[in-house]
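Thread: NAP complex, take 2
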Amino acid sequence: MSGRISQTPAPVVVITGASSGIGWELALRLAAGGACVALVARRADRLRQLEAQITAGGGVAVALPCDLTDVDALARLPGQVETDLGPVDVLINNAGRGAHGPFDDVDMATHRQVMGVNVDSVVACTHAFLPQMLNRGCGKLVFVSSVLGRLPAPEHAVYAASKWAVSGFAESLAYELQPRGIDVVLVEPGLVQTEFAQQASAPMARFRHVPSKTAAQAAQIIMQAIQRSTPHTIADRGVAFVIACKRHVPRLFRLIFGAVYRRAARS
Ligand SMILES: NC(=O)c1ccc[n+]([C@@H]2O[C@H](COP(=O)([O-])OP(=O)(O)OC[C@H]3O[C@@H](n4cnc5c(N)ncnc54)[C@H](OP(=O)(O)O)[C@@H]3O)[C@@H](O)[C@H]2O)c1
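Output below.
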């Protein structure tokens, strides 16, 4: 057992983006810790595989294939979860996508998809599940954002904007919902070895130059933040230090990073 996430016997946890990477690892850990997990993503085959793996190990899981950018499908999710597992205790907004490349080279349809999954569906999913938590006066909203929101890099403009939005959304909600019994947990991972980079057409070479974590390590950090209801976690100590430097000496930071990025673009 990797530790319970709630005092209730079997908390119901919804994990978006459970078909791969961080979401997959989170589902395995949460189910092993005694949670009943609702697995949400588009790839039904992957979700069913994960559901079978969890139930074979004695856990409780239900695969709920859904494209989160489909407004009607998303609106049906809370009812499906309540019918299959009960009212939600924890919603983990983890699904996301990137798009790497010069801003003007990436087409607008892709930019819209990034904002659609990373921002619109996070807002809509939170709005859809929140009433089940407010009805009982307790619950947790978890947001998997990214350090790129606080440390924007070239060729990630819309992704950085989307994650900046998620972090702002989460912090604002925390002030609003904490008095109503709802905890908000924001986690900003650094580089993680998942399908994400490939899907975003990001250069794989950066895994050689930038320290990264495995999906399992990232999931473990998120688990801990959920268990402790930590309001804000930057899931990479080195990057947390760089972000702190940026906050204290912003002009120097821009000078140094501007030079670093120009040099990287030339090489
Ligand atoms: N990997 C990194 O370096 C890194 C760093 C910082 C933050 N993050 C964040 O961590 C989260 C998880 O990413 P990951 O690294 O685990 O990447 P991943 O393996 O590519 O997982 C992304 C998940 O999002 C789901 N998804 C994408 N579009 C969807 C849609 N329209 N509807 C429903 N589900 C959708 C995907 O499932 P389907 O394709 O089956 O729909 C998949 O399960 C993301 O929010 C990402 O921004 C990642």
